[in-house]
Design goal:
Strand content: 5-15%
Shape: elongated
Structural class: mainly alpha
Largest sheet: 7 strands, antiparallel
Helix content: 40-55%
Distance between the termini: 17 Å
Radius of gyration: 33 Å
Number of strands: 7
Length: 667
């Protein structure tokens, strides 16, 4: 059977089941783990019904119902969990469906390829008992199991036992077993691309197989191989993502493209990233046959002055206009005059906008060239034009004017009382206001709004006096911008650490190396998102490491996890946390190398996917378990990250990735 979640719901309803739908993750073993003992070699039926008997459907339904009631699979509210064989998810792991029997129902007649050939597993909502239905050659088996948690514990302990000989033999089963499916091969490629243990000679073989590869720093040999890779997407991603490209390599990469569109794309990437290129590359790109390439070349840093002058006289108006935007201060008076008088309207407009950053613009020029919003944002304006724009009925135009750095104080004061909230807010972030003036502007500020630091505050990060003054600002965006400084005076740090706006200490925890330990603990207690700096606040150098054992019994699971960061924490505490009622605490335990192999195996069947994936990378996992994970599409990518993979096994995996001929879909 194949289909998505909606088709599964429809199937269950046709089988006479009421779906008690919700989005919870059931706190029981996941469906894949529940199927394992049902289909295992050596499994024995609790009840077997011959397929050639008359009326097998009614008999199967009756036997399942008898077992379900007797074992407690159906709870007091008539609810149980069910999973039906087949591909019922388009992405992510499959999950249980919570159901209840209606007045009529027919599991054996509907939940299979044909009536009387059922394939499903039912589990009690407390996860202690299951009944699986599976169709064999001559019979249909109903397999009932109780004490599931105890069985899981015992199975995990048994699986964790492994001799060196058994470990070597397990790797052999991967290398000589069924070839993996296409999906599994792709997942292996993504995992190996991020596995730091993969040797460089094997890493080069992953080019074109995984986009993850090019984001990590690569050795010269792999970079050179990527530069001449036949797949254009590999070369494009190399330019965009690879941190180890030298200016000479970037130049060769761009100039090596024969297709003008691809040269344009790589030049655009280099310009956006502000990448350095060689002078020879600058000159060749400035003379490129494609006007699109020449236009992007104007944005490259470090262009020689004579090259800029040549581009300012380029035949293509788009190139000349771009030079106005990027290099106006570097052009001589003759070139500027020519651009101001350019016959092309776009070029002339760009030149006028640059020219009037230093020379007041009259209203006649603004109107004749239709410069409107852009002129309002950055140009020096004659008084009459500035007054006209400040009194415009267009709120967007007034908003653009509100940030103009050349605006007279009385017009700034007028816009500070503007009826439009966005205009007032823009005025409130101006650098030329006193803090008294800023406090007098009525603004609407949603603390949940994503915001970027104010550039003018960032420019003053090295000025202690400015930071003291701005840290006392009434404006939350100003204080947030101060908190982005890497270093701050102690009194400023103390003020910001106790700010009423919780985002201020959050930014302090992320950006400031002087953030205090007690504040970092407070942020850790409530912040559940991710930061642009990995692992902060926990990874902050000032985060306290000692004395954290006192949180081992804290009701807040985020604080409870901190006990394992204490140098005096023990392996026994790791084991205890691996059974914690909170999934995040169990995941932290699964990431701890002190966790026993048996507990790591047990957590592979945790209800929550992040816990399972953390356990799948545990260094103590037996090889046969890693092999099983490598063959399972749900865990193949994570298992390919495992540090214990022998180089010979990695090489075999790479061979399968590169040469899929003859593979099967069995894995």
């Amino acid at each position: 059977m194949t289909g998505g979640r909606d088709e599964l719901i429809e199937l269950l309803q046709r089988a006479g089941l009421e779906v008690v739908e919700d989005q919870r993750i059931e706190d029981v073993l996941p469906p894949r783990a529940a199927w394992r003992p049902v289909i295992a070699h050596g499994a024995a039926p609790t009840v077997a019904v011959r397929r050639d008997l008359p009326g097998p459907v009614a008999e199967l339904n009756a036997q399942w119902h008898r077992l379900a009631l007797g074992s407690g699979v159906i709870d007091a509210d008539g609810v149980f969990l069910i999973d039906v064989a087949g591909n019922w998810t388009c992405c992510g792991p499959r999950r249980w469906t919570r159901v209840r029997l209606t007045d009529w129902w027919d599991l054996a007649g509907v939940l299979g390829e044909r009536p009387g050939q059922p394939e499903f597993v039912t589990v009690s909502t407390d996860g202690t008992t299951l009944i699986g239905a599976t169709t064999e050659e001559y019979e249909v088996w109903l397999i009932a199991l109780d004490r599931l948690p105890e069985r899981q514990e015992a199975a995990a302990r048994a699986a964790a036992q492994e001799t060196p000989e058994e470990r070597a033999a397990a790797w052999t089963t991967l290398c000589h077993g069924l070839r993996p499916s296409g999906r599994v091969r792709d997942l292996w490629a993504h995992g190996l691309a991020r596995n730091p243990a993969v040797p460089d000679d094997l890493r080069a073989g992953l080019l074109g197989r995984s986009h993850f590869l090019l984001w990590r720093p690569l050795p010269t040999a792999v970079v050179e191989a990527a530069m001449v890779h036949p797949d254009w997407k590999v070369r494009q991603l190399l330019a965009e993502a690879q941190p180890n490209l030298t200016p000479e390599q970037r130049a060769r990469l761009i100039l090596g493209e024969q297709d003008a569109g691809r040269r344009w794309a790589l030049t655009l990437i280099a310009a956006d990233r502000r990448d350095e290129l060689t002078e020879a590359a600058h000159r060749r790109l400035a003379a490129d046959p494609s006007a699109l390439v020449r236009e992007e070349a104007t944005r490259l840093p470090g262009l020689p002055v004579d090259v800029l002058a040549a581009l300012a006289a380029d035949d293509a108006p788009s190139v000349r206009a771009s030079v106005c935007q990027t290099a106006w201060p570097l052009l001589g008076d003759p070139a500027r005059t020519a651009l101001l008088d350019d016959p092309d309207g776009r070029v002339r407009a760009e030149a006028l906008l640059q020219h009037h950053e230093d020379h007041p613009m009259p209203r006649s020029v603004c109107d004749s060239e239709q410069l409107g919003h852009r002129a309002a944002t950055s140009c020096r304006l004659e008084r009459g034009l500035a007054e006209h724009l400040a009194q415009s009925g267009d709120a967007a135009l007034r908003h653009a004017l509100a940030g103009n750095p050349h605006l007279d104080p009385d017009l700034v004061a007028l816009l500070a009382q503007d009826p439009d909230a966005s205009v007032r807010f823009e005025v409130s972030t101006r650098p030329d206001l006193t803090e008294e003036q800023r406090a007098g502007i009525a603004i609407d500020f949603d603390p949940r709004t994503r915001c970027h630091p104010l550039d003018w505050v960032v420019a003053r990060h090295e000025d202690p006096d400015a930071m003291r003054r701005l840290a006392a600002s009434s404006h939350p965006l100003v204080r947030r911008s101060v908190a982005r400084a890497r270093h701050l005076p102690a009194d400023v740090v103390d003020r910001l650490a106790h700010d009423d706006d919780r985002v201020v200490p959050l930014f302090l925890a992320e950006s400031c190396d002087d953030a205090p330990a007690d504040m970092l603990l407070r942020v850790r207690q409530w912040w559940t998102g991710s930061l642009s700096v990995p692992d902060r606040p926990l990874g902050h150098p000032n985060f306290p490491r000692r004395g954290l054992l006192r949180y081992a019994d804290d009701p807040n699971p985020r604080m409870r996890q901190l006990a394992l960061e204490d140098p005096q924490s023990t392996a026994e505490l790791v084991e205890r946390f691996s059974r914690d009622g909170d999934a995040d605490v169990r995941r932290r335990a699964a990431n701890d190398p002190r966790l026993t192999p048996a507990s790591a195996v047990r957590l592979l069947d945790d209800p929550h996917e992040p816990v399972r994936h953390a356990a799948a990378r545990h260094p103590g996992l037996p090889a046969r378990v890693v092999v099983r994970l490598l063959r399972d599409p749900d865990t193949a990518e994570t298992a390919a990250l495992h540090a214990s993979l022998p180089v010979a096994v990695m090489a075999q995996m790479l061979q399968w990735i590169q040469h899929p001929a003859g593979t099967t879909s069995g894995a």
